[in-house]
Design a protein that fits this description.
Layout: H1 2-14, E1 15-16, H2 18-26, E2 31-35, H3 39-44, E3 51-52, E4 71-75, H4 83-93, E5 97-101, H5 104-110
């Protein structure tokens, strides 16, 4: 039992779902959402207010202006893409407090939250049952 508890506590320490992210943003928590995909993908569609730092470019110089006291949430397209994992690992190695958005942009949109960019989508004001 103790191993199970440790496992699930660890998952929640390093992962966040779309509802909890949306709620944190709405409450004004000190959270920075990081799109770890390419600049082209970010231009097409991204989570409102997110910043684009492609995981391949994360280094001390590209993150120098970021506050290490904030919580950073990395995301990518979703299932089948591990750019958010690579970005989270890079940021952790650089000394940032970071979580990964499970389901990425795909699940953000499936849960009905708005996006920005050339292919922006309106939010549907859905509240998932997992909150």
């Amino acid at each position: 039992m103790k191993d199970q508890i440790t496992h699930y506590e660890s998952k929640l320490k390093y992962e966040i779902d779309a509802y909890d992210l949306w709620e944190s943003i709405t409450l004004g928590n000190d959270i920075v959402v990081v799109d770890t995909r390419s600049a082209e993908a970010y231009t097409e569609r991204h989570i409102p207010g997110s910043v684009n730092i492609p995981h391949r470019t994360m280094d001390p110089d590209s993150t120098a202006d970021l506050n290490k006291k904030s919580l950073y949430v990395t995301y990518c397209d979703g299932i089948g893409c591990n750019a958010s994992t690579k970005g989270a690992l890079n940021m952790a190695r650089l000394g940032f407090n970071v979580k990964e958005l499970i389901g990425g942009l795909d699940w953000w949109m499936r849960d009905g939250y708005e996006t920005e960019g050339l292919q922006a989508t309106e939010g549907k004001a859905l509240v998932c049952g997992c909150g």
